[in-house]
Write a structure and sequence with these properties.
The complex is a heterodimer of chains A (about 550) and B (about 170). Chain A has four domains: about 15-110, 3-Layer(aba) Sandwich (Glutaredoxin); about 140-345, 3-Layer(aba) Sandwich (Rossmann fold); about 355-435, Ubiquitin-like (UB roll), CATH 3.10.20; about 450-549, NADH-ubiquinone oxidoreductase 51kDa subunit, iron-sulphur binding domain (de novo design (two linked rop proteins)). Helix content of chain A is about 45%, strand content about 15%. Chain A is built from 24 helices and 13 strands. Chain A has a five-stranded mixed β-sheet with strand order 10-9-13-11-12. In chain A, helix 8 packs antiparallel against helix 9 (about 175-185), helix 10 (about 205-215) packs parallel to helix 12 (about 245-260) and helix 19 (about 460-480) packs antiparallel against helix 20. In chain A, about 55% of the residues are buried. Chain B is built from seven helices and four strands; from the N terminus they run ααααβααβββα. The model of chain B has no long low-confidence stretch (mean pLDDT about 95). Classes of the chains: A alpha/beta (about 550), B alpha+beta (about 170).
């Protein structure tokens, strides 16, 4: 593959595209597929053939359009028309109306804040390109970042642009990406590796899944640029086996890129070679922790080991390893294309760029969103999310999954970035954002996350293995209505011990949901302990007590 | 040192073992292909039995204890055969607060089994999952691998009743 050939592919694809005036884009990401968008796509195709419009209309499958709750979604390319909750029998009407007024009955308002308040960098191609065709990605400036890096930048310059961008790890901890890349680049070792962490284990998070399903080439390109910058020629992408569609698209994407010579030997005629293999996770939350993930790639039980040495120095098979999250790699191609300064111009002082969130729970518009850093939680939940359904009252928003915390109403106007979320006892996390209304019991929620951490604890270190079990038992006592003040004191002490003495991130952050709910919703704990009642009416004790009164 | 590179014979004439062999060959029978090999076994046989674990252990020259350790460490692997139909209830945060526990309760009540168990007639296996990543469509349940969105306890039990009576 030469640079000219890459541009030729883009030109040919664009020409073919311009010949067809109408294109219907059907969302084929997992969310819409589970509401049978594949059948909608079929019937649209049939309707086009039936009306003899094959020359002027085309149907294509695209990635996630974001508004999962209104699926299956169908967009008419180059227009504002977006159809929601489309059924196969609507196909005929949609096809007939192409080029005329859109079908009112099915129209989804694209001027609502859900669409207008977002800023898309990572998701710029999601819902636009056909994720199963590399040519479409190339038209959307795909692999141009890699081309530029390989042909007009040296390794240090690539690292410099990433540093300048201010990009921080999107897996949750927010470590500066440029610093990590620089460390691996400087590390000594004959062999180095790049690993992409796609083990999205947080319950309530599906950003990485959507990115991998909607725009897999973007992640591959980011990894290849990373490989060039640090001097690695082999990459692994670790994906959950629970995401079969993402795995399939990724494997297909790797084959396509290899076929065109965008992965493999001597990419763009340079001396740089890079290969990527997919590795399947097997359902262990702890494998999201980098050293556990590395053990899993090596075919072992996914148990973490103490750091340092950090993977940047001794990672996969004891070689220097660059390990970043899916979303982090997905940010790389546009940073190289547009320069680090462009990226640094978006967001806040300490949080640059955008963040993808999976918005779910008690909120009207559930789905996938991408917003600039620094936007307030209130804007996300009440404008983009459309507020709380059924006239209920907002209670808390949970970010960061089992490692995060619950944020109450008084902090809704706080800007969203790594530091401000940490200040109120939560974390940015990978991007799961679950809204809870008054029907959720915060003690029950804390227990839910503790049960998760207890089961997912790998068992290597005592504080996490035993501590999470003890904390879960104490929380169960509270939700049963049999706890005492001493039990609560013990719980608080355990939070402190487990946080400070666990080996890896899983244990260190496991107490977060308890600590944050105790901080903001202590009255609910007290109601369970002293009054033997559950204010939200979730815990069984409340109902039984009422029945006997 | 001369390594003994002869591969163990396939456990039976079942042609599916060839697929398992192919996976291991793709990774040069290296020890780090253990998880991939187990994935292949589970994909084609539905679960990992002792024969399979022993075969993979010998082929990759990994101690059986380690193979067993890996197979039991990861939730995705199962050592028990599954029922004819599987119902996986997502218990992720979004599904949890939108009523997944009530769905599971209704199913448990109907099928008289707990998550992870299979009915005595081997018709149904019920599993609770960590998170499908279908949070936008909570609560979600996968019936025989097909994810259904916004499921009610009644809809779930209706589907299962049909399976059990079929």
């Amino acid at each position: 593959m030469t640079p000219e050939e890459l541009h030729k592919i883009a030109e040919t694809e664009l020409e073919a595209k311009q010949k067809i005036p109408h294109t219907l884009c059907v969302c084929m990401a997992a969310g819409c597929v589970s509401t049978h968008s594949d059948k909608v796509k079929e019937s649209l195709q049939q309707a086009i053939e039936k009306h003899g419009l094959k020359e002027t209309c085309k149907v294509k499958g695209v990635g996630c359009m974001g508004l999962c709750m209104a699926g299956p979604l169908v967009a008419v390319a180059q227009t504002d028309a977006l159809y929601q909750m489309v059924a196969p029998q609507d196909a005929e009407e949609i096809v007939k109306n192409l080029g005329k007024q859109p079908v009112k009955r099915l129209a989804c308002d694209t001027t609502q804040p859900f669409f207008t308040r977002q800023k898309k960098i990572v998701l710029e191609n999601s819902g636009v390109v056909d994720s199963e065709r590399i040519e479409e990605y190339i038209v959307a400036k795909g692999y141009e970042g890699l081309l530029e890096a390989l042909t007009s930048m040296n390794q240090a310059e690539v690292v410099e642009q990433v540093s300048k961008s201010g990009l921080r790890g999107r897996g949750g901890a927010g470590f500066p990406t440029g610093l990590k890349w620089g460390t691996v680049a400087k590390a000594r070792g004959e062999r180095k590796f790049v690993i992409c962490n796609g083990d999205e284990g947080d319950p309530g998070a599906f950003m990485d899944r959507s990115v991998l399903e909607s725009d897999p080439h973007r992640v591959l390109e980011g990894m290849a640029i990373g490989g060039y910058a640090v001097g690695a020629s082999q990459g692994y992408i670790y994906v959950r086996a629970e995401y079969p569609l993402a795995v399939k698209r990724l494997k297909d994407a790797i084959k396509q890129a290899e076929r065109l010579g965008l992965l493999g030997h001597n990419i763009f005629g340079t001396t740089f070679s890079f290969n990527i293999e997919v590795r399947l996770g097997a359902g262990a939350f702890v494998c999201g922790e980098e050293t556990a993930l590395i053990a899993s790639v090596e075919g072992k039980r996914g148990q973490p080991r103490p750091r340092p040495p950090f993977p940047a120095e001794r990672g996969l098979w004891d070689c220097p390893t660059l390990i970043n999250n899916v979303e982090t790699f997905a940010n790389i191609p546009p940073i190289i294309r547009n320069g680090g300064e462009w990226f640094a111009g978006i967001g806040t002082e300490k949080g640059k760029g955008t963040k993808v969130f999976a918005l779910a729970g008690a909120v009207k518009n559930t789905g996938l969103i991408e917003v600039p850093m620094g936007i307030s939680l209130r804007e996300i939940i009440f404008e983009i999310g459309g507020g709380i359904p059924d006239g209920k009252k907002f209670k808390a928003v949970q970010t960061g999954g089992p490692s995060g915390g619950c944020i109450p109403e008084q902090f809704l106007d706080m800007p969203v970035d790594y530091d401000s979320l940490a200040k109120v006892g939560s974390i940015m996390g990978s991007g799961g954002m679950i809204v809870m209304d008054e029907t959720s019991c915060m003690v029950d929620v804390a227990k839910f996350f503790m049960e998760f951490c207890m089961t997912e604890s790998c068992g290597k270190c005592v504080p996490c293995r035993v501590g999470t079990k003890q904390m879960h038992e104490l929380l169960s006592k509270i939700t049963d209505g049999t706890a005492t003040d001493e039990n609560l004191a013990m719980l608080e002490e355990l939070c402190d011990v487990v946080k400070n003495t666990s080996l890896c991130g899983l244990g260190m952050t496991a107490p977060n949901p308890v600590v944050s709910t105790l901080r903001y919703f202590r009255d609910e704990y007290m109601a369970h302990i002293h009054d033997h009642r559950c204010p939200a009416g979730v815990c069984k004790i409340g109902k039984e007590q009422l029945a006997t009164v | 040192m001369v390594m003994n590179l002869t591969k163990p014979a396939m456990p039976s004439d079942d042609k599916r073992w060839k697929i398992v062999n192919a996976t291991m060959r793709r990774y040069g029978h290296s020890q780090h292909s253990l998880i991939e090999a187990l994935h292949t076994v589970q994909e084609i046989f539905g679960f990992l039995d002792e024969t399979a674990l022993k075969f993979v252990a010998k082929s990759l020259r990994v101690p059986l204890s380690k193979v067993y350790g890996v197979a039991t460490f990861y939730n995705f692997f199962t050592l028990k055969p599954q029922g004819e139909h599987t119902c996986v209830v997502c218990m992720g945060t979004a599904c949890y607060i939108k009523g997944a526990p009530q769905i599971l309760e209704a199913i448990e009540h109907l099928a008289k089994i707990k998550p992870g168990e299979t009915t005595p007639d081997r018709k149904l296996t019920v599993i609770s999952a960590r998170c499908f990543g279908s949070c936008g469509l909570a609560p979600a349940v996968a019936f025989d691998g097909e994810v259904a969105a916004k499921v009610s306890p009644a809809a779930a039990t209706e589907k299962i009743r049909r399976w059990m009576n079929s």
